[in-house]
């Protein structure tokens, strides 16, 4: 049934693309007729060789589809556009909060009032700074800690203000979860009196800018929400990218302070991951460098550091560092065509976990993975 469901989605998208494209051939373009329809398919299958443990031991080798993405977008009028993106290889239930599966990343309309203001309404990406988070998913071989844990795509509204071509400010309100409150925070212990928030919403501010003819780009954001009634979560994030000739390098930083473990990264390491964990800090720092030394060849180097901790003791955990990890990635990409529609890749990723100070959490196994095939 799932295969038939996915096939029917693709067929419907192709048919709608054909119908809209055909109608635009015979109609004179006006402000009220469709201007464009763009349909794309993104694939990333790979062969993964996985090694785990200390010392590392070969565990398995397998072919796997990391991504199958259908991305549909276009213009309804000169001011109104839309986008729909779904990951066909992701199996997801329909979460009751939004009445949507998590396999749908985007389902929104965007209206541009004028050259200064625009509004986006529907399912969209939570405003988070940095460049790893905002890259297209098929181009990220491994995400850092906070980017990998946060619920990225949520339903709501965003207002953007673009005073100049290289400056954008945004304000966003979206849901802070897709499913039930207990799915998001866990089960409160008997002694812990917690209630769902009255308004389970993220409030976000974003600032994107570029300088020196787009050589220097900045992406910053701040978020606040209530994971439980009377409890607060705050997050700040930012990234700086420098592009010069064949070189591209960016550095991102993420920090989250929360009275309830909303990301679940620490909670998942405890003996009872279904229970609520309190008083947590998350910090991730990463850097990535790309060197396109020939038109068809690119070298990728990436490093990211994660530090997850509790800033105050609670009934379930002591105060201290719960997880520290260093992650290293190197890869080479080959682009056989004149454009970037196809590339072959070979990457190696090592994840090293240090012993935590908090004894009630488990240390994940070190891992090493070699991956190769095409995007």
Layout of helices and strands:
Blueprint (H helix, E strand, L loop, with lengths): L1 H25 L9 E17 L4 E19 L4 E8 L6 E2 L4 E2 L2 E9 L4 E9 L19 H5 L3 E12 L2 E9 L5 H5 L15 E11 L4 E10 L7 E12 L2 E14 L17 E17 L2 E14 L9 E15 L9 E11 L12 E8 L1
Antiparallel strand pairs: 1-2, 1-18, 2-3, 3-6, 4-5, 6-7, 7-8, 8-9, 9-10, 10-11, 11-12, 12-13, 13-14, 14-15, 15-16, 16-17, 17-18
CATH arch. level architecture: Beta Barrel
| Cross-sheet strand order for the largest sheet | 1-2-3-6-7-8-9-10-11-12-13-14-15-16-17-18
Distance separating the two termini: 27 Å
Strand content: over 45%
The total domain count is 1
Described by strand count, sense and barrel closure, the largest sheet is:
16 strands, antiparallel, barrel
The CATH class is: Mainly Beta
Question: Helix- and strand-based class?
Answer: mainly beta
Q: What is the assembly state of the chains in this entry?
A: single chain
Q: What radius of gyration results from the CA coordinates?
A: 22 Å
CATH homology group? Porin
Q: Please bin the fraction of helical residues.
A: under 10%
Q: Compute the number of helices.
A: 3
**How does the overall form come out from the CA principal axes?**
globular
| Secondary-structure element pattern, one letter each | HEEEEEEEHEEHEEEEEEEEE
Mean pLDDT: 91
- CATH T-level topology: Porin
Q: Give start-end ranges of low-pLDDT stretches.
A: 1-29
According to DSSP, the number of beta strands is 18
């Amino acid at each position: 049934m799932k295969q038939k469901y996915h096939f029917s989605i693709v067929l419907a998208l192709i048919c709608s693309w054909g119908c809209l494209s055909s109608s635009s051939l015979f109609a004179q373009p006006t402000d009220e007729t469709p201007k464009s329809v763009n349909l794309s398919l993104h694939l990333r299958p790979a062969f993964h060789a996985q090694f785990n443990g200390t010392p590392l031991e070969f565990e398995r080798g397998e072919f796997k589809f990391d991504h199958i993405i259908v991305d549909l977008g276009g213009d309804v009028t000169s001011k109104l556009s839309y986008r729909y993106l779904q990951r066909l290889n992701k199996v997801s239930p329909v979460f009751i909060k939004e009445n949507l599966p998590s396999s749908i990343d985007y389902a929104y309309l965007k209206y541009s009032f004028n050259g200064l203001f625009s509004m986006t309404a529907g399912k969209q990406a939570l405003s988070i700074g940095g460049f790893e988070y905002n890259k297209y998913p098929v181009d990220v071989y491994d995400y850092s800690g906070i980017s990998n844990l946060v619920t990225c795509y949520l339903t709501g509204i965003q207002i953007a203000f673009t005073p100049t071509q290289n400056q954008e400010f945004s304000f966003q309100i979206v849901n802070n979860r897709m499913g039930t409150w207990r799915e998001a925070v866990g089960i409160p212990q008997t002694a812990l009196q917690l209630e769902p928030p009255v308004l389970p919403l993220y409030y976000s501010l974003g600032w994107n800018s570029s300088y020196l003819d787009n050589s220097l780009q900045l992406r910053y954001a701040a978020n606040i929400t209530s994971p439980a009634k009377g409890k607060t979560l705050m997050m700040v994030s930012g990234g700086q990218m420098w592009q010069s000739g064949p070189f591209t390098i960016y550095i991102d930083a993420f920090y989250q302070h929360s009275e309830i473990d909303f990301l679940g990264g620490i909670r998942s390491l405890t003996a009872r991951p279904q229970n609520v964990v309190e008083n947590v800090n998350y910090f991730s720092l990463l850097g990535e460098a790309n060197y396109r030394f020939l038109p068809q060849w690119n070298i990728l180097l990436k490093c990211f550091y994660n530090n997850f901790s509790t800033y105050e003791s609670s009934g379930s955990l002591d105060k201290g560092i719960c997880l520290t990890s260093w992650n290293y990635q190197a890869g080479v990409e080959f682009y056989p065509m004149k454009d970037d529609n196809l590339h072959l890749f070979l990457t190696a990723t090592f994840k090293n976990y240090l012993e935590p100070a908090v004894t009630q959490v488990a240390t994940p196994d070190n891992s090493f993975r070699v991956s190769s095939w095409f995007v």
